[in-house]
């Protein structure tokens, strides 16, 4: 009677008899794998493919010599050739570079002011619950108010000059900066605080040496994302400008809309994402160099900051000398043990031993 195969031997025989998957099927399985990191060549290829598809669709709906021959009229959407032909007028007649730099300056000043005020307040709210409760109404109001509603308020408070645009960006962003900073502080694990207290750190040292350094990568990443939103907000504030300063990108869009220059508007809308992407990549490089342990950079800026801090400590030591230790009486030393506080111990010197020894009877 023949021996029956065991279950494991049967499974192995079925696996051996099953044909190996083809290369096409294996490629399709890898291609549609969920959340698979895309290689660099794949990101570039599909990005360019998307741009080519949009360009082809744009060319198709604007194909024709006259507006009657086109799917979309030239007044609503000019063809790619007609649009790029307006770049000379946009660059020279409308001073694209000067207006773009004016918008960047306003965004940078307003957002820097929001970060200078929002980050310290966010650290305070993240460390102490009473501070978070105190600033909660302000942060809720700032995060939920429509951005467009701030324009008439800033006009009434700050006029129509440069200060109005800077303060508009500040008011629009400071509540988000405060909330994200407080959230980053609260997300630091409690074990780090317990360890700091165990090692004898004070409350101020725990905040400055533990909570802030651990939360700063997340805070900086939030600031990078919020700066992109602020760059979009500035278009609303540049509706009204004085004749003494450049109008900005928002003013160019408004003037083109009044004059019916659709091609210039499309060019501006194409230039804004390119500039925003370049700024975002620059800030991301700074982020990687400041926090290489988190984002995988070389750490050039991190090393420079550490070098500056060390030089500052050296310079501070030359100006402020440490306090001298109090002198102790002769014969008294301090015994230090890990589990007990320091206690004075009488050392057994010859003079002390002689004086302490009782006289022998004659």
CATH architecture of the largest domain: Orthogonal Bundle
Radius of gyration from the alpha-carbon trace, in angstroms: 34 Å
Strand order of the largest sheet: 1-2
Query: Between the first and last Cα atoms, what is the distance in angstroms?
Result: 114 Å
- In the CATH scheme, the class of the largest domain would be Mainly Alpha
General shape: globular
Number of separate domains: 2
CATH topology annotation of the largest domain:
MetI-like fold
Count the strands? Answer: 2
Strand content: under 5%
Q: Mind telling me the CATH superfamily name of the largest domain?
A: MetI-like
* Helix and strand run: HHHHHHHHHHHHHHHEEH
Could you write a compact summary of the structure shown?
This protein has 16 helices and 2 strands. The protein is mainly α. The protein folds into 2 domains: 33 residues; 231 residues, MetI-like (MetI-like fold, Orthogonal Bundle).
Protein described:
Strands 1-2 form a two-stranded antiparallel sheet. The protein contains 16 helices and 2 strands. Mean pLDDT is 81; it is low at 332-362. It has 2 domains: 45-77; 87-317, MetI-like fold (Orthogonal Bundle). It has helices spanning 7-17, 23-31, 40-61, 80-84, 87-92, 96-127, 129-144, 150-158, 162-186, 190-198, 203-237, 249-259, 262-290, 292-295, 300-319, 350-356; strands at residues 332-335, 343-346. By secondary structure, the protein is an all-alpha fold. Helix content is 69%, strand content 2%.
